[in-house]
Amino acid sequence: MSALLDADVLTIFPHMFPGPLGDSITGRALTEGLVHLNAVDVRGFATDRHRSTDDYPYGGGPGMVMRPEPVVAAIESVRRESSRVLLMSPAGQRLTQRLATELAAAQHLVLVCGRYEGIDERVGLVSDAEEVSIGDFVLTGGELAAMVVLDAVIRLLPGVLSSAEAWRDESHALAGLLEYPQYTRPVEFRGLRVPDILLSGHHAQVAAWRRRAALVRTRDRRPDLLTADHLAELERLERLEAGDAQPRPA
Ligand code: SAH
Description:
Bound molecules: S-adenosyl-L-homocysteine
Largest sheet: 5 strands, parallel
Structural class: alpha/beta
Distance between the termini: 45 Å
Oligomer: single chain
Strand content: 15-25%
């Protein structure tokens, strides 16, 4: 069976891969061949005697910068016509569920992991690469960032999640809303009961409760995600329920 996604990770620490991606759901996707993940040692593309991949920054300043030649040679050794080349960088486009979904449609991803103070600016320019950030904080290297990107992408590939692990309702996929609260057994834990409606077996009411809970949670925690339509929907639901004895979602 041919893989749904091929990914080459370019790093000076190839032994870090697959790392946590080798476990659980992503691990299964790898062993079943749904995903081919290959770690490429950038050091193998160093050309000088010392196999150096970094050097002092022009203009001075602390730390070292990854040299362009080995990184570009490594990219060019794996890239194909259809590849999306992603440079892990805190200055990049922020990873979102939308970007993950887009990347899941790619056939080949090349993820380039920086170290030290980052990668020579010219790498991105000559390799038509996109910079991707996993959030507004600075890591010591791009490897964990690449794993985060891959984890988010791999679980979106068809057949990776079983229907029992279905992802459609999850935070950021449920039409841009956070997910409703989830409960499992026991029915009562430390005096806190699972909302009765979830025990009712009434699918339509459960669905309505979850929708409203997702809207409320998003309004309370991430109002920036709420659209005008969401707000109108929530107001409508609240008007309908005014005077209703039903418990409010936590
Ligand atoms: N001097 C750089 C930080 C370099 S951190 C700056 O201030 O922008 C070293 C490497 O870690 C980067 O090259 C990048 O590959 C990776 N990295 C750090 N933070 C990251 C983030 N938020 N998202 C993605 N990659 C990150």
